[in-house]
Design brief:
The complex is a heterodimer of chains A (261) and B (497). Chain A has 261 residues and is an alpha/beta fold. Chain A contains nine helices and twelve strands. The radius of gyration of chain A is 18 Å and the shape is globular. Chain B has a ten-stranded mixed sheet with strand order 4-3-7-9-11-13-16-18-20-22. In chain B, strands 5, 6, 8, 10, 12, 14, 15, 17, 19 and 21 form a ten-stranded mixed sheet that branches. In chain B, strands 1-2 form a two-stranded antiparallel ribbon. Classes of the chains: A alpha/beta (261), B alpha/beta (497). Chains A and B meet through helix 2, strand 7 and helix 3 of A and helix 10 and helix 11 of B.
Chain lengths: 261, 497
């Protein structure tokens, strides 16, 4: 399970997370919602180990291991997967090559046999079919020239191939039409089981009608200000974050943009 | 940024340990006395039992060289070379007369260098092995193995002879095909072309000779593997490839040397001639010892490579992967004489630690509708310095000539340098010349993305660099592309934390 206690983190010396605590039991999917700048992406980067996100206090463990002491690739081996909000382009690196190298790096680290090209292709094609992706996307450079929707699907392809134990989805729904949104939800739901946990970061309730979370948390000002069941998401959709920001009355609407008084 | 600090620290910590070809072969050698003078030129010529005209040719080159000055325009710095403090001829004492007699030490050497087993079977003279297309379905590769100053073996010669193809050492060609050598030697790179070409013309020892007859498509890759082994020795390779009308050949050269604290000189001349409708594809995987992290030792690679597209619709394509050498000074060029002829230059050059590379190409457009493409990828890490230097020259009569040049530089760390020096001389109104250039760094988000998916940092860098160089690597013959990718990764070993 994922256990975060009193987590403080800063970027460029500026505190972003200010004492966040959260527990996700195995098999559970939690959603984190909150206005822009509340620290949602920071949380996912801190958990995945991105450089420049400095933990100043607190702890985060997964499956009993100290995540914060590990290199990003070690966390990946442990089963942490981050679906990027803005998937990164790797010019000249073939998508198939990238995916197979990643998969085999994980398998190698776990002492499992590596997949050869044929085994890999067979597996990848099955998964791609489910995600409505064509073979041609394997031949292109990683995320280069991909549309927004294609990038997100590619993230989901990676996730379904790498079979993580903890998936962090950082606004994977942003910019997706309803069909793509359903495919993303299907990919996550397909992994759901006793040995899979997920933290779904989103602005909108609509993703959570397809991935029904066990718990919903509201992040504001670097701390969780409210937690509840799936119904909380609907409530927020209706009323916005105004009532939940850390003590200070908000002049911001649900999507974070200022509202006219 | 911490990544950069880490990168630099690790680069500094790197030793020559990453170079996997740095061993030395213990074998009885015969040397010319140290030094360079007319007697040495005569000594080499006599050793090779050369006809009088070739000795004259060498002596003329030597006279020219003595009057010339070492070029200083390249963006490389090194202490003066003492040309008298080197051997200009070094050969294993028991020079083999046939493939059966190859010294076992040499066989071991090539085994360690990873020359494919089939070819070793050939080197050892095992009857039949490798002389037929291999059972694994892999295309055979013919190899000429040059060890210091002499070719020690050439494989698949007889097989190639059936198609009328001549593939042998240049020393042998001088004996067996003197008329061809005399006709073409120096016809693309004249003796007095430049300082290092003049030096080479005076003291060249071995290299390969290829002649592809009219209309023949060479049935296999031809390659030469250059190995410097002896101490205090320079290697002066001379290669000549002639593709007659309508023929096609793909040729690859590879090279390695032991790790030593001294700098050794490799001054080569390569000449290519392509007649009407002929194609020559020339690939290089240059992996000379690059010196250690502090810049001690390593090969000085001063090389003149030039191809003449003499015939209409002929094509010469250079692909180079330059990972080794302390200093690389090399500009594989094309003289596009024939109408509609095509010149290409694809280059990846890596400089890590204290390596310096000044490399590029020259495209001379003379014929009508001649086309050239230049794609250069420079990768600098550690304290490496990487310069692309190129010239596109279009003569007044080259109507409809076109050139496209793309130079991309990738920087790893903040103590390395990348420089682009493109010259364009266009004297023809109807010609079209395009130049694009970029400089970038490996982005932190790219590294993080790869690592988040489970790739260790070094593997991630290797993958990103290979992606950066892909346009060039895909030009290599498939068998070598894989090797080259590994090599890029090894060359950057220790360049990240």
């Amino acid at each position: 399970m994922l256990k975060i206690e009193n987590l403080h983190a800063a970027v460029d010396g500026k505190p972003i997370l200010k004492g966040l605590s959260l527990e996700i039991a195995p098999g559970e999917v939690h959603a984190i919602m909150g206005p822009n700048g509340s620290g949602k992406s920071t949380l996912s980067y801190v958990l995945a180990g991105r450089e420049g996100y400095e933990v100043t206090e607190g702890s985060a463990t997964f499956a009993g291991q100290d995540l914060l002491a590990m290199e990003p690739e070690e966390r990946a081996v442990l089963g942490v997967f981050l679906a990027f909000q803005a998937p990164v382009e790797l010019p000249g690196v073939g998508n198939a090559n990238f995916l197979r190298t990643a998969l085999n790096a994980l398998r190698r680290a776990k002492g499992e046999a590596e997949l050869d090209a044929m085994q890999f292709l067979k597996l990848a094609r099955t998964r791609m079919k489910t995600l409505g992706m064509t073979d041609e996307m394997l031949k292109r450079s990683v995320n280069v020239g991909f549309s927004g929707g294609e990038k997100k699907r590619n993230e989901m392809l990676q996730m379904s191939m790498l079979q993580p134990r903890l998936a962090l989805l950082d606004e994977t729904d942003s910019g997706l039409d309803i069909d793509a949104l359903k495919l993303v939800a299907d990919a996550v739901n397909a992994l759901r089981g006793p040995d899979f946990s997920a933290l779904v970061i989103t602005h909108y309730q609509r993703l959570l009608t397809h991935i029904v979370p066990d718990r919903v948390h509201v992040l504001a000002g670097g701390v969780i200000v409210r937690s509840g069941g799936p119904e909380l998401a609907q409530e927020l959709e209706a009323s916005g974050y105004a009532g939940v920001q850390d003590g200070t009355p908000s002049k911001r609407s649900f999507d974070g943009s200022p509202v006219a008084a | 940024m911490p990544a950069v600090t880490e990168t630099i620290e690790t680069v500094q910590a790197v030793t020559e340990g990453g170079y996997k070809w740095g061993f030395e072969t213990d074998i009885e050698m015969e040397f010319a006395p140290k030094g360079l003078n007319e007697d040495i030129v005569r000594f080499i010529s006599k050793k090779k039992n050369e006809p009088a005209w070739l000795l004259e040719w060498r002596l003329k080159a030597f006279a020219m060289w003595q009057k010339m000055e070492e070029p200083r325009w390249a963006a490389v710095t090194y202490s003066p070379i003492d040309y008298q403090d080197s051997h200009y001829y070094a050969a294993p004492k028991a020079g083999p007369k046939s493939l059966d007699e190859v010294d076992p030490e040499l066989l071991k050497t090539y085994a360690k260098l990873g020359i494919p087993l089939k070819e070793q079977a050939i080197l050892a003279g095992v009857e039949g092995a490798g002389e037929s297309p291999s059972d694994s379905g892999r295309m055979p590769i013919a190899v000429d193995a040059v060890f210091d100053s002499v070719s020690v073996a050439t494989t698949f010669k007889h097989r190639l002879e059936k198609d009328g193809i001549i593939f042998c050492s240049i020393s042998e060609a001088v004996q067996e095909h003197p008329e061809l050598v005399r006709q073409y030697l120096g016809s693309v790179v004249p003796q007095g072309d430049n300082y290092f070409a003049a030096l080479n013309s005076a003291v060249f020892t071995d290299g390969s000779f290829v002649y592809i007859p009219r209309g023949v498509r060479c049935p296999m890759e031809l390659s030469t593997y250059f190995r410097i082994n002896a101490k205090s020795t320079g290697q002066f390779e001379r290669t000549l490839i002639i593709a007659d009308a309508g023929s096609h050949v793909s040729y690859l050269e590879g090279c390695t040397a032991p790790m030593r604290d001294e700098n050794q000189l490799h001054a080569a001349v390569v000449e290519l001639v392509a007649m009407d409708d002929a194609t020559i594809k020339y690939s290089t995987v240059q992996n000379w010892y690059p010196g250690d992290a502090e810049g001690r030792g390593g090969i000085y690679n001063f090389v003149t490579k030039r191809g003449a597209c003499r015939g209409a619709r002929s094509k010469i394509s250079w692909t180079q992967v330059e990972t080794g050498s302390a200093i690389t000074w090399k500009y594989p060029s094309c003289i596009l004489q024939g109408d509609d002829s095509v010149g290409e230059f694809y280059s990846v050059a890596i400089t890590n630690n204290r390596q310096q590379a000044d490399t590029g190409t020259k495209m001379f457009h003379i014929g009508r509708n001649t086309r050239s493409t230049i794609v250069s990828k420079g990768i600098s890490a550690g304290r490496g310095q990487n310069t692309y230097r190129g010239l596109v020259k279009i003569s007044p009569k080259a109507h409809g000539a076109r050139n496209f040049t793309q130079c991309d530089s990738l920087l790893i760390g903040d103590q390395c340098g990348a420089h682009t020096v493109p010259y364009i001389e266009n004297r023809c109104m109807s010609a079209k010349v395009e130049h694009e250039a970029t400089t970038s760094r490996i982005a932190e988000d790219q590294l993080f993305y790869c690592r988040q998916r489970g790739l260790p940092e070094e593997e991630a860098v290797g993958m990103i660099v290979n992606g950066f160089a892909r346009e060039v690597l895909k030009e290599l013959p498939m068998e070598f592309a894989v090797e080259a990718q590994k090599l890029l990764q090894i060359s950057l070993e220790g360049s990240v934390g």
